[in-house]
Write a structure and sequence with these properties.
By secondary structure, the chain is an alpha/beta fold. The chain folds into two domains: 12-146 and 282-356, 3-Layer(aba) Sandwich (Rossmann fold); 149-275 and 359-391, 3-Layer(aba) Sandwich (Rossmann fold), CATH 3.40.50. The protein has 13 helices and 16 strands. Strand 8, helix 5 (174-189) and strand 9 (193-200) form a beta-alpha-beta unit. The longest helix has 20 residues, at 302-321. The protein is globular.
Length: 401
């Protein structure tokens, strides 16, 4: 498939550093960041994920096997065919060994199959479909940050610990359907009521008709499943419609610090967040955040921190294996606990799911903030075993072996 110049725009970044050691490997280590570079989710992943990958490369010395580590990036446009075309070209023609980020379930599922065919590596920083490490799991694919199951699980348990009623506004693509399905199952198993749902297209500017349906449902909670610019638009419009003042709680399921920052804590105060990284957690996260901000000019997001973590772990595995061979590197990655500035001893399960700690938090109200970036309060830590799909409920064949 021939891609347009605009669609396939990418850059190769060779980051120089002292050679580690020469060996049997006779080509440079080359990785790719594939994500949304300019559309609805670009502020959450986008160029910031590329900057995070560069920091990980720098922390590995910038070079390996006597050659600079190379980085390429591209925009998949949220289209599986475009993402697949880029991945095939990277793997087959340009010598890319591993692809990171994605931030699109449909593209992730398509690229994961290609990675398995070609003995390559795919690490998804954040994608919501449980199929990635579920019924479509692959020995070559991994999920590093949060996923739809964890978002539904922790948001429902954290924001409404008692049984209650829910109506959903759900983005009309694979990830949204997956989260809604998990949410309904959790609500009903806890004794609550799933009143209904309405689907909206990605990048919707007007949510008025959807909000009216949610309000007329009489549900105590209006759950929103979507993100990026859609999240920003619907939160603004929910405020204009007086959802909270009328006695219903507006509960976004994928709220990030990006939306809290852009909308302000006066608007988002009390809304839930689920993540694995927050810049103000401790001295280590604060130090890395300052470094990222110096390099990129903005505060890092959870997916961007997870790109750093996954790239660093991959490069450590390549160094230990002495090769970029997919099978050898994957074996090293899965045999070695993940250690970095915000990940401590997390292990990769057989289905590719990194069993890391997750946090339930809520956006602070303005009077609670101690500074301009003191956005959220961490309320509860959940271990991986309590956050992600239990082995008994998984459809992944790799967990049954």
């Amino acid at each position: 498939m021939r891609l347009s110049k605009a669609t396939y725009a990418y850059a190769a970044l060779a980051i120089a550093g002292a050679p580690i050691s020469a060996g049997a490997q006779d080509k440079p280590v080359k990785i790719g960041v594939l994500n949304d570079q300019a559309s609805v989710y670009s502020s959450i992943s986008g160029p910031g994920s590329v900057a995070a990958a560069r920091l990980a490369i720098e922390d590995m010395g910038g070079a390996m096997f006597g050659k600079p580590i190379e980085l390429v990036f591209a925009d998949h446009g949220h289209k599986p065919d475009i993402g697949s075309g880029i991945a095939r070209r990277w793997y087959d023609v340009e010598g890319v060994d591993a692809i990171f980020d994605i931030y699109s379930s449909g593209v992730s599922l398509a690229v994961q199959g290609i990675a398995e065919q070609k003995n390559k590596v795919l690490v998804v920083s954040t994608a919501s479909s449980r199929d990635i490490s579920g019924k479509s799991c692959s020995p070559n694919g991994m999920q590093w940050g949060n996923d739809g199951y964890a978002v539904a699980n922790l948001t429902i348990n954290g924001s409404s610990p008692q049984p209650t009623s829910w109506f959903f506004l759900t983005v009309d693509y694979t990830a949204g359907h997956s989260i809604e399905k998990d949410a309904q199952r959790m609500i009903e198993s806890a004794g609550g009521k799933f009143v209904g749902a309405v689907r909206f297209p990605l990048n919707s500017p007007d949510f008025s008709s959807y909000l009216l349906r949610a309000q007329s449902s009489g549900a105590k909670n209006i759950g929103f499943i979507g993100g990026g610019a859609d999240m920003t638009n619907v939160i603004k419009q929910a405020g204009e419609f007086g959802v909270e003042k009328a006695g219903q709680r507006f509960v976004p399921f994928s709220l990030t610090t990006v939306e809290v920052d852009s909308l302000g804590n006066k608007v988002t105060g009390g809304m839930p967040l689920v993540f694995s990284f927050y810049w103000d957690e401790n001295d280590a996260t604060k130090a890395w955040t300052e470094r990222f901000k110096k390099a990129f000019g903005k505060m890092p997001t959870d997916p961007q921190a997870n790109v750093y973590s996954s790239v660093l772990h991959y490069l450590k595995a390549v160094k230990a294996a002495g090769s970029t061979d997919g099978a050898a590197v994957l074996a090293r990655m899965k045999a070695t606990p993940v250690e970095d500035f915000f990940t401590k001893g997390a292990k990769i399960r057989a289905d590719g799911r990194l069993m890391r700690n997750m946090y339930y938090a809520e956006a602070k109200k303005p009077e609670e903030m101690k500074g301009p970036t003191d956005f959220v309060k961490l309320l509860k830590t959940y271990p991986g075993e309590k956050s992600f799909v239990p082995v008994a409920d998984s459809e992944c064949k790799l967990l049954k072996q």
